Amino acid sequence: MFEVRADPDRNRLYLTLAGRLDSAERQAAIKAILTEAGKLTQGFGVVSDISALHASDQEGFKDFLRAKSGLKLKGAGPVVRVVKIPLSRIQVERISTEAGFEAEQVSSVEEADKWLDAAGEAP
C-alpha cells in the first residue's frame, strides 16, 4: 500500500509506504512520487512515513533507489522519515545513503512536520 500527496502551500511531499510492495506497486508508487514532486518548488521538504513498511527484496531496493535519485533530481530538500520497523529502517537508510540523502528520523508525521517547520521549511 502506498499513498503520495504534494502540499504546495507547505512545499512538502508526503509519502506513506506500508506492507510489502510488489513490483507493480513499487512502479506505481515511483510514478506517483515523481508526479507529485513535480507540483513543488526547489528545496521542498519530504515526509516519508515508512512506519509500516516491510523490508524489500533486491529488486525493491533498486526501485526505491531510483525513486530517491529521482527526488534528488526534482530538487528535494530536507527529508524526514517516520520509522518503526528496524529492518526497514536499516534498508531505507542504506538506500538514502546511496542516493546521497541524509534524513532525520522521527516517530510520527506530526513530529516530522514540526521538525521541518523548525528547520525553516514552513511557508
Blueprint (SSEs and pairs):
Elements: E1 2-7, E2 12-19, H1 23-37, E3 45-53, H2 58-74, E4 79-82, H3 86-99, E5 103-106, H4 109-121
Parallel strand pairs: 2-3, 3-4, 4-5
Antiparallel strand pairs: 1-2
Helix pairs in contact: 1-2, 2-3
Q: Could you describe the 3D structure shown?
A:
Strands 1-2-3-4-5 form a 5-stranded mixed sheet, with helices on both faces. It starts with a strand and ends with a helix. The protein has 4 helices and 5 strands; from the N terminus they run E-E-H-E-H-E-H-E-H. With 123 residues, it is an alpha/beta fold. Helix 1 (23-37) runs parallel beside helix 2 and helix 2 (58-74) packs across helix 3. It has a single domain, classed as STAS domain (Transcription Regulator spoIIAA, 2-Layer Sandwich), CATH 3.30.750.24. Helices cover 48% and strands 25% of the residues. The protein is globular and about 35 Å long. Strand 4 (79-82), helix 3 (86-99) and strand 5 (103-106) form a beta-alpha-beta unit. It has helices spanning 23-37, 58-74, 86-99, 109-121; strands at 2-7, 12-19, 45-53, 79-82, 103-106.
